[in-house]
Amino acid sequence: MITSNQIKNKIWESKQEHSLTKESLKMLWENRIPLIRIRNFATVEECDNLVAQAQLFNFDYYQDVYPKIERIGITVFEYNHISKAAYFQAVERTSQLRNSIMAASFNPLERLMEKIRNCTGATVRIASEPLYGSYYAGLIRKIEQGTQLHIDYAPSEQSEWEVGTVIYQLSWNLYLKFSSNNRLGLGQSQAITGKTRIYDRQWEPGNDQYKLDSYGYSDTVIADATDMITFEPYVGDVFIFNTRNFHTVEPMDGQRVTFTSAIGLLPNGEIILWS
Ligand SMILES: O=C(O)CCC(=O)C(=O)O
Ligand SMILES: [Fe+2]
Q1: 3-class SS at 56?
Q2: Domain coverage including residue 72
Q3: C-alpha span between 264 and 269 (Å, rounded)
Q4: In a domain? residue 1
Q5: Which atom belonging to ligand 1 lies closest to the Cα atom of 171?
Q6: Which of 179, 200, 195 is nearest to 248 (CA)?
Q7: Distance (Å, rounded) from C-alpha 240 to C-alpha 9?
Q8: What is the pLDDT along the chain (275 residues), one digit of tens a residue?
C-alpha cells in the first residue's frame, strides 16, 4: 500500500515556510506541505479594532466541547446534532452580527477570499446548501485553554450537508490577539504557549474507534504519525493548514483570539468557505 508519505514531491518534512501561491495551495490541499503563512495579512491596529468591536457582544461557548472554547458565530459542527434547518435559521442573524463587527473594524473574510481568488483564478465563495441558501462563515474565536487532539473534515462529520462533498479541507486562522498574562513569578520556560500542532497523519474511516467524546481523539491515533509541525501564532498573520490532519492547540495563560473559517475544494474546482 502506498502511504501518503510516499507520494512524489512530498516535502512536509522540510519545515520550510510557504507563502500563499497557486502551487503552495495545491500542495496544502494534497497534504504535501504542512502549512501556509500569510505574513502581515492585517495590521495590529486592524486586529485590535476587530477584537474591541467583538468584545461589545457576548461570546458563546461551543456546546459539548471541553476544554471550553468561546466564539461569536455558528458552526455546522454544533448543529450536526441539532438540525440543518436550525443552522440555516441562525445564519442570517449571525451574519448580521458578524457584518456589524466587520463594518466597524475591517473585513478579513473578503480579504482572504480575494487573495485566494487572485492566486488561483478559481471561483471562491461562501458555501451554499440547496433549498437552504448560504452557510455562515467567519468565527471570532477564543481558544485559550487549548483543544483536544481532533480533525475538522466535513466528509466524515457532515456527510449529509453540501460541505460534506468537499474533496479536501483546510482552515485559516487570522491571529487577532496573542498575549500572555505574564504573571509575576512565571519564568519564560514555564510560560504556557498557545501553539498549534499539526501531525502528518490524516483521518481515515475507522479512526473513530479512537474518539473520546464529541470531538476529541486519543493519542493512539497519532502513534504512527511520521511527522508534526508546531507553530506559534503571530498577530496579523494568517496560517492555513489541512484540517483532515490531526491537530491540537496548546493551552496558554493569556488571550488568544482568532478570526477563522473552513475552506474546502469541491470536485468542480470551486473553493468554498463556511463555519
Ligand atoms: O486556533 C488555532 O490555531 C487552530 C484551531 C483549529 O483547531 C482549527 O482552526 O481547526
Ligand atoms: Fe481544528
Answers
A1: coil
A2: 16-274
A3: 10
A4: no
A5: 9
A6: 195
A7: 20
A8: 445 555 556 788 777 789 999 999 999 999 999 999 999 999 999 999 999 999 999 999 988 889 999 999 999 999 988 999 999 999 999 999 999 999 999 999 999 999 999 999 999 999 999 999 999 999 999 999 999 999 999 999 999 999 999 999 999 999 999 998 876 655 555 666 999 999 999 999 999 999 999 899 999 999 999 899 999 999 999 999 999 999 999 999 999 999 999 999 999 999 999 99
Give domain status of residue 192, yes or no. Answer: yes
CB 152 less than 6 A from any atom of ligand 1 = yes
Nearest to 239, CA basis, from 272, 270, 197: 197
For residue 164, which phi and psi values (nearest 5 degrees)? Answer: -70, -5
Q: Is residue 84 part of a domain?
A: yes
CA of 240 relative to ligand 1 center, distance in Å: 9
Q: Please work out whether the CB of residue 258 comes within 6 Å of at least one atom of ligand 1.
A: yes
CATH of the domain at 261: 2.60.120.620
In the chain, count of helices (H) and strands (E)?
6, 14
Residue 260 near ligand 1, beta carbon < 6 Å: yes
The number of domains in the chain is 1
Atom in ligand 1 nearest the alpha carbon of residue 247: 7
Asked if residue 8 belongs to a domain, the reply is no
- Where does residue 111 fall: left (phi above 0), alpha (psi -120 to 50 degrees), or beta otherwise? alpha
Residue nearest to ligand 1 atom 3, measured at CA: 196
Nearest partner of 92 among 68, 63, 126, 62, judged by Cα? 126
